[in-house]
Amino acid sequence: NKGARRPARVPEQAIAKVGVIGAGFMGAGIAYVAAKAGIEVVLVDQTQAAADKGKAHSASLMEGLVKKGRAKPDEAEALLARIQATPDYAALADADLVIEAVFEDRDVKAEVSRRVAEVLKPQAIFASNTSTLPITSLAEAFPDASRFVGIHFFSPVDKMMLTEVILGKETGDQALAVALDFVRAIKKTPIVVNDTRGFFANRCVLRYMTEAYDMLVEGVPPVMIENAAKFAGMPVGPLALNDETAVDLSQKIMKATIRDMGEGSIDPRHFALVNEMVDEEGRLGRKAGKGFYDYPAKPAKKHI
Ligand code: NAI
């Protein structure tokens, strides 16, 4: 693994401005952690409203910290002032690093790469937050693959410390150094991984969830699986974790795996289980209020 260490000959990179494209679930979180570290952020989405919604995530996290006395109101204000929310790609022109977190769709990402390449300054680095698409193949849509790297965050971005830096075949030393320096600047722990399916963490998580699926189809009650996992010291049981990451995402990944690697690549009992949950029962996970578990909406707080 050529990237086990930071390339020593590349001087430390000060990253003053970061672009984040896609102000959804992940992009909004990435914008927050960067702004929290004092970095200027340009947060781009398709519309002003979508970009603003992403920025509102930072406002709400800071509001929570202020309420708990862990941040001052002027710190919250300063953090928000560092985030420019816009639908205009031209605002990325002076960014040192741009990270895309748009839909997990090869064509959408390729289109975004082309648009970014038109405005990015020559030495800047472009990164993808993809969780499943190979970095080497995504880099093909960007004119200079040596400046393309994977920076893979985990949700919730403000809480999860691990960040994977993924090397494509052509990723250069400068891109690796910028990615590592950025991850350290936002006070997360980077690990450098090769461009393999699931990278590192998702390979482990997948095995964790797959074993739970096995137990479930063997008839073990979900609550026993979860309790056993908790007693074994895992912070979240495998089925509750799958509810967090979304059951329809599992279905999507299984479909893509079957398409790419053939019928035998996924246990048909697991595929049948997610198909039933998603297509017939709308059990998409926590976001839908039900997945392996039910998540009844909390009653609205009364203002006295
Ligand atoms: P999301 O659907 O919440 O957000 C995607 C955002 O991209 C949307 O706001 C959408 O309007 C915007 N977008 C789409 N096309 C665009 C374009 N051409 N220009 C600008 N903005 C555009 O998706 P989510 O969950 O945030 O995922 C984003 C990426 O992060 C995906 O590649 C996903 O695989 C990856 N990822 C997701 C994780 C998760 O737990 N959801 C974890 C780690 C990575």
TrEMBL record:
Residues covered by the 3-hydroxyacyl-CoA dehydrogenase C-terminal domain: 198-295
Stated family: In the central section; belongs to the 3-hydroxyacyl-CoA dehydrogenase family.
Domain 3-hydroxyacyl-CoA dehydrogenase NAD binding: start-end pairs: 17-196
Organism this protein belongs to: Aureimonas phyllosphaerae
Designated name of the protein: 3-hydroxyacyl-CoA dehydrogenase/enoyl-CoA hydratase/3-hydroxybutyryl-CoA epimerase
